[in-house]
Structure formats: structure tokens, C-alpha cells
Amino acid sequence: MAPAILITRPDPSGAAFADHVRARIGCAPEIVLSPIMRIEHCGDLPDMSGYKTLIFTSRHGVEAYLAQDGPCDIPAYAVGNATAAAARRAGMDVISCDGDAGDLIARILADSPTAPCLHLRGEHIASNIAQALTLAGTETHEATIYRQIEGRLTAQALSLLQNGQPVIVPLFSPRSAQLFFEQTAAAGPILVAAISDNVRQAVPCGTAQRIETAEKPTAEAMLEVIVTLWNSAKRLEGGNPAK
């Protein structure tokens, strides 16, 4: 059976990523959208008058910050290019670290920006950036301004996982990996595209036939992993690989 692709990212990111997958594979793959989380803004911004540098680790943080009319004249750091682009669209002066939390921390410590810094974060995080920076000598506070609410796989997604065909599942966070496998009892092979080693480690042992990790924690690198998994599955089936 031909492989299918199950995208669990929250909307609207999931639908946009599906469009990129279709364009990259160059054919008409079966793609099912089933967000495993939804994003909800929460909490209030602190008094912003004393903060000299902002830190964003997702577009959701940027959106939640702007929804509270956070000032856009404070210099900022973003973990990656997509997050930086969201901040720049709002007129913010932002440096992209083009990597993961470790790259972000290293860049901030190397630059020694004016402190205190403020990390605008979600309820669930993979790395405690504020703590790491503060312990290294750069005073950093944090504000939780959005939460990732657990969702349920749709009936279409559950049916896809039960029909025996290979299913490629891109996973973008340890929490999405945890939630997905808590709800999954697949009858066919699951092929995981993991955006980072943290995500790879969150996949329970024995639940995926194959796991490939992106070279960088970016959407473009994830597309490359999906193409690799797609071509491998198509070769086993005897079909034509993506170009």
C-alpha cells in the first residue's frame, strides 16, 4: 500500500505545512490533518518597562505577545527563522538563532545583550531557557502566555492508522509525540519524522518502525526527512519516488 502522511500540528500551521509537503513531494500523497493540540492564549504580560531583551521560542509566543499589545520596540531573539519572521512582520528588531534551544542559549550568552531578558513561553517547554541563561550570568525571567491544549485524533486519522498502510508522522515537539502515541494503536508501520533529538527520545520504544531526525529543527529540514521516508516506503512498495 502507498504511504500516507498524518500531520498533527495545530492549525493553521498544519494546513500550511501540508501544502509544503504536497509541493515538495511533487505528486498527490494522501495527507490527513488531525491536530493533536490547540493553542490557547493565557496569562498576562508582566510590567514590560524593565525588560531590555525578549526571547521567543515559537510563533505561538509571538502571536500571544502581540495579542496582548506587547511593545514591539524591545530587541528580541528567536529560536528559528519562522519565529523570527513572525516577529519581524510586527515590526520587531529580532535576531534569528536558526537552530534549537541550545543554539539560542549559546547565541544570547555570546552576544551578552542588555538584561534582564524575558522569555515568552508556552505552558509546556522542552528546555528551561530562563534558568539556563540566569545560571550562566544573564538574568532572564519568563512569562507563560499560551498553553498547548490536548486534542484528540480524528476518526479519519484513527481509521488511517488502522488500515495497515505505512503512515509517515511528522512530530514537532516532545509533547506532540507523547500525545500522539498515547492515542495510537496502529495496525501498520509508523514512520516518524522527528524535528529534534528531544522529539526522537519522546517516541516510546517499539512504537515506530522507523524514526528519522531532521538535521536542523526547521520546516525545510523536516520536509527533507519526509521525502526520505516517502521514497523509502515507495521503493518497498515498488512505486515511483518523489523527485
UniProtKB/TrEMBL annotation:
GO terms for molecular function: uroporphyrinogen-III synthase activity. It comes from the Bacteria. Pfam families: HEM4 (PF02602). One of its GO terms (biological process) is tetrapyrrole biosynthetic process. SUPFAM superfamilies: HemD-like (SSF69618). Residues 31-224 form the Tetrapyrrole biosynthesis uroporphyrinogen III synthase domain. This is Uroporphyrinogen-III synthase. It comes from Roseovarius litoreus.
